[in-house]
Amino acid sequence: MRPTLVNNLRVLVPVKRTIDYAVKIRVASDGKGVDTNVKHAMNPFDEIAVEEAVRLREKHKDAITKITAVSAGPAKTADVLRTALAMGADDAIHVEIPDNSLGGPLEPLGVSKILKAVIDKENEKEEIGLIIMGKQAIDDDASQTGQMLAAILDWPQATFASKMEFKGKLEKGEKVQVTREVDGGLAVVETSLPFVLTTDLRLNEPRYASLPNIMKAKKKPFQKLTLKDLGLEDAAKPRLETIKVQEPPKREGGAKVESVDELVSKLKEAGRI
Predict the structure, then answer these.
(1) How many CB atoms lie within 10 A of CB 63?
(2) Rounded Cα–Cα distance for residues 104 and 88 (Å)
(3) What domains does the chain contain, in order, with CATH numbers?
(4) Which of 127, 150, 201, 272 lies 20 to 30 Å from 160, alpha-carbon distance?
(5) Are 257 and 266 in contact (CB under 8 A)?
(6) Element containing residue 267 per DSSP (H, E)
(7) Phi and psi (nearest 5°) for 183?
(8) 2, pLDDT greater than 60
């Protein structure tokens, strides 16, 4: 029998290893992807998600039992999980998937299925009542995983959050108010636990992991799983094939004009109007 959340909240934070945001992206030699032999780091939106979970625990010390970071990918993915542990997560789960073993990159639907299977497995030990994750990854910019996961779990979702406020205790069924960034302003929505939250840039500013915390992270629980352990050998295979990747055309130099008439004339010559 699963435990009931009674002022007893476990938070799951999915994170992804992506090319560092400061790296200049180059198209790979085969023209079907980008050069990945560069510096990688935790997806910036996921850093915000980890920070929000840690701040939530700092504010509600007695209510949050555990913050668990989870990621799927090759062996090097462990690096971002260690970063999450150093930022304040209590334990980590790595679903190890060897490079190219699926025939392509993990897609949002595959990731959401993996997360659902992890949640089902972990719920047998201690129920997860809140999922906080980045609104998108900066490599594929899909912005789909959180929404798909909420649908598979049949949980409410609050996406692109810039503020979250609990209206009662951190218990199952308690109300949560979330401020979302929308075109031209803000939208305030209300939902209840358990639910999926995806983070926007202005939710918080992630902390730097201190050296003592980096050392402590090495001793925190770190669980490894495979797709076979989750019964997902085929479910995580890509459904799309990348045909071609190319850099955008280089911008041509501009020119100054002296009047509106000259501007209109130049646009006509260029076939723009």
Answers:
(1) 17
(2) 32
(3) 9-269 (3.40.50.620)
(4) 127
(5) yes
(6) helix 260-269
(7) -60, 120
(8) no
How far CA 246 is from CA of 37, 78, 242, 270, in Å, comes to: 18, 30, 11, 25
DSSP assignment of the chain equals -PPP-SS-EEEEEE--EEE-TTSPP-B-TTSSSB---S-EEE-HHHHHHHHHHHHHHHHSTTTEEEEEEEEEESGGGHHHHHHHHHHT-SEEEEEE--TTTTSS---HHHHHHHHHHHHHHHHTTS---EEEEES--TTT----HHHHHHHHHT--EEEEEEEEEESS-SSTT-EEEEEEEETTEEEEEEEESSEEEEE-GGG--PPPPPHHHHHHHTTS-EEEE-HHHHT-TTTTS-S-------PPPPPPP----SSHHHHHHHHHHTT--
Residue 183 has pLDDT above 90, yes or no: no
Q: Measured between alpha carbons, how far is residue 172 from residues 26, 163, 176 in Å?
A: 47, 20, 11
Q: How far apart are CA 196 and CA 263, in angstroms?
A: 50
Q: What is the pTM of this model?
A: 0.85
- The label of the residue with tokens 């803000």 reads 186
d(CA 272, CA 212): 59
Residue 57 backbone dihedrals phi, psi, to 5 degrees: -70, -40
Taking the C-alpha atoms of residue 113 and residue 124, their distance in angstroms, rounded to an integer, is 17
Percent of the chain clearing pLDDT 70 (strictly above)? 97
Residue 169, SS3 per DSSP: coil
What is the structure's pLDDT at 137? 93
What distance lies between CA 208 and its chain's CA centroid?
Answer: 18
